[in-house]
Design goal:
By secondary structure, the chain is an alpha/beta fold. The chain is built from nine helices and eleven strands. The protein is globular, with a radius of gyration of 17 Å. The two termini are 17 Å apart.
Length: 255
């Protein structure tokens, strides 16, 4: 469902009005600590820091839904390249996202934030099944909703799941929290002269192959007029300031 374009335009322009509801795309690597891809599992200190950032957003009055990845445990695409059938590899990756979702839920609980995990693959002892109206009710009651297991289908990434859930939850903006402070024209870790974009369109992301998300996720956001913010999860307070309307990171819009 397309969002209210007027409200989105006001928020994306940097107005202090802030956002009513955000969908946070959190990578598995963001929970693994500073070593990122080279580190396996969940770093307790990093998890605690991420949860505190989310708690601050909730305290500021913004509703938060989360889609979490599983790359710190397993990557379906990489595993399929090593010989595992792609569909099976993707299902294993979905289960990895459930582990991360439960960890985030527990981390939030420890600091007094109520959260629910909804899995696209039914795992009744540890999570709720994904039900859109129930998720919306949780958000309206001040709970964080953590979506696990991607879309529940192989061949679709958690980036695509984030775009889909953002549209289904009528989020004002999709926030991709990464280890860098925005979208660059090349890898800033390899190129000190890399240029950061303040704003860019989805068509430019696709044409310039900027690698923000996969093409399916980008097209879904573009076609549903879903604004996106890309910012650093490692910058303390950045997520809260963004949710309150401060112009942080890179803004991606349909036009």
């Amino acid at each position: 469902m397309p969002n209210d374009s007027t409200a989105n335009a006001q928020n994306v322009s940097g107005s202090t009005k802030g956002y009513r509801r955000i969908l946070l795309k959190l990578s598995g690597e963001a929970l693994a600590g500073s070593e990122g891809d080279s580190k396996f599992g969940i770093d307790a200190q990093t998890l605690n820091g991420v949860c505190k950032e989310i708690a601050a957003v909730i305290e500021s009055g913004t509703q938060v839904a989360i889609v979490v990845g599983g790359g710190n445990f397993f990557r379906g695409i990489s595993a399929s390249e090593s010989g595992i059938e792609r569909a099976t590899a993707d299902y294993i990756g979905m289960l990895a996202t459930v582990m991360n979702a439960l960890a985030v839920q527990q981390g939030l609980k420890q600091i007094g934030v109520e959260a629910r995990v909804q899995s696209a693959i039914p795992i009744s002892p540890v999570s709720e099944p994904y039900v859109r109206l129930r998720a919306l009710k949780h958000l309206n009651n001040g709970r964080v909703v953590i979506f696990a297991a991607g879309t529940g289908n192989p061949y679709f990434t958690t980036d695509t799941a984030a775009s889909l859930r953002a549209a289904e939850m009528n989020a004002d903006v999709l926030v991709k929290a990464t280890n860098v402070d925005g979208v660059y024209d090349s890898d800033p870790a390899k190129n000190p002269q890399a240029k950061r974009y303040d704003s860019v369109t989805y068509d430019e992301v696709l044409q310039k192959r900027l690698g923000v998300m996969d093409a399916t996720a980008i097209a879904l956001c573009r076609d549903n007029n879903m604004a996106m913010k890309v910012l650093s999860i490692n910058e303390e307070g950045a997520l809260t300031r963004m949710s309150q309307g401060e112009d942080i990171g890179t803004t991606i819009t349909s036009t």
